[in-house]
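Data card: per-record layout.
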Amino acid sequence: MISIKNKFRTGVTALAVGASLLVAPSASAEPVLAVTTGAVFNDPNSTDAAARGRILSHLAGLVDGAEAGSSIRISLYLFHSVYLANKLGDAHKRGVTVQVVVDADSRSTGLETLKTRLADPSGAPGSWVRTCKPEEACLALDPGTTAADPNGTYDNVNHNKFFLFSRTRGKGDVAVDDVVVQGSGNLTSQDTDDWWNDALTVVGNAELFTAYRGYFDDLAAAAVGQIPQVAEYAHDTQAGKAKVYFFPRSGTDTVVNILGTVAPVGTPDSCGGNSPGFGTADGRTRIRIAQGHTTRPDVAKKLWELANAGCDIEIVYRSLDNWTADDKPMGQVANWLTRPVTGKGRITLHQLDNDKRGGSDSHTKYLLIEGTYYGGVNKKIVFTGSHTYTTTALRYNDETLLKYEDATVFDAYVGNFEAQRGAALAGL
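The structure for this 428-residue chain is written out next.
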């Protein structure tokens, strides 16, 4: 388990208020809509604290703008931020119901501050913090002993990183409903200062919000033993441009199934057929992945099959495969991803920090598909969330994977991918 730094960088900005700001704004001023669908990314290599803390600032704005009588629900692996704990405490104090589910690994001053603030009886009724059982996830069933873990010592966890706001105006004037924020990071200083992370906000999608809320309610109930843990939670919800997948899964590999819909593998150049320049210059499907951990050989094999069918695949990564007790790689994932391909396709790997040489590290878990998907062409699709390409994320953890099909959102993720790839090439 990676050691998480407990301190969180916060700053106080002094605002000089001039006489002109004391004048009432013009009656014709347009109301500001600040909360919209889109992605936010941090930059751990920046010397600017604001750039490193963009996601935290975004979340703080949503909390500040939550209206009395509304609710905030959070499911998170690690909660260390005293800053956001006090923001949530302030929201509770003004009548916002705040409910938080965290993993038992989340032991911090920030979490204790949050518990204290939410226990204030003068705030909204129904606010609380619930914690999973030690060394277990909340909803996902503890695997006990497995072939990979014969002593049953692996701690499966609530690895989720999502935030739900029933109604908030954020930093603007116009309140919006049903706000889902699906992130890749926790509330720790390491997530801002060392690791690349993303947060995708989806606004006004009631069906998506309801699906997340149902999953949250099950996590919260399982945490206190009101419902049993499960080995299978195959609840997929298609909601307009969005589709959400919840975990654990005991059946087929969800990511392999997703990749299997990209192209009919086995026919020559089956990744083709898009408009020229859509994907590659000659219209072949392009897949970009920025993923911290990949240990599932079936995922790597499917990526190789797609490359062999003509797809262009780029991966920014932190580490491939699990490591044995004697520090030797198991190798199956790396073997598939470095295997030669025939035809026009290829796989290109870009490594960031590998836990040994230092530097910034990809903590995002996104998959970008540009081109063919499910029989269509010229698609631009983002898959993001907490789900790493590991067996534990698939089988034993509480996890979420969010699909979103939108060109503007997709292009924002491509920009972030290019920034991570640039950092990898620069060896930062």
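Known properties of this structure: The longest strand covers residues 376-385. Confidence is low (pLDDT under 50) at residues 1-26.

See the next section for split statistics.
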